[in-house]
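Problem: given the chain below (284 residues), write out its structure.
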Amino acid sequence: MLKSFQQLQEEYNEVYKSTRAKRVRIYTIITSILAGITVLSLFLKNFEHFFTYIMYIAIGILVIAVVIMIIDLASGTNKSLYNIVYPNVIEEINFNDDSNITLDVLTKENEFIKIGGLFPRLSSKDIKFHINYTTDDGVNISIYDAYIYTQSNNGRVVHFDGIYYVLKIPNNVYFQLRSNGSPKLKGTKFKKFQTDPLMKEYVKEDEEERIDSKYYSLFNFLKEDIPKRKIYIGGIENELHIGITKYNLFRKLNELTDSDYSRLKSHIYEILEFGKTIANKITF
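Solution.
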């Protein structure tokens, strides 16, 4: 149900403040306990070496906990942004434009990663939202705010952090154009060839070493504003997958203001129009 801005602001800010207060209380309890252990260990350290070790461990955990608390509280990242504000923006756009855009937030859906073959199948995926719509020319487009990574004992490797488009278009050529990395499509072998030094080019092993020029033009178009941006374009049967890094995404929000709401609405319109621009560049 579409809410007025005042209703939305009251609902969101109430939830945001309540959630933030709970997090502050939890962090306060944790740091108080650790600080108490540290102080106690200082008094008892002359009696047993054991308490010295406990003290150092407690101090280390205390420092880490304080740093995490500061970062967490300063980030403004919260589920309420996606559960409350994003849906209202989509509803307003649908109402004003008589459109039929669908939204799924904080989704576990990640099949598009496996199907697209741009990034490791077994990686972890943090999908903030999935937007789906169809252009006036009949091209169905899905948009994902995606963070894709692999975690190990040695740390975290981020494979992708940005906006991910999937376009349903007539296509029977398997190919990839990439800023870096190699194809990860299960069951399909690719061969690499080189015609452009600015990108990595792959086609299916048994296909001609040729990719339609419109996809090279699209790659360069996506990269022209931000040269350091990484682009990933992959063609599979009747789909085109596109990953774009260094895209200005709307992931953080503290208390909701009118200007914040307007910025988010502009952001949604921007990624919707960007999808249409991409579709126009490859279908006409």
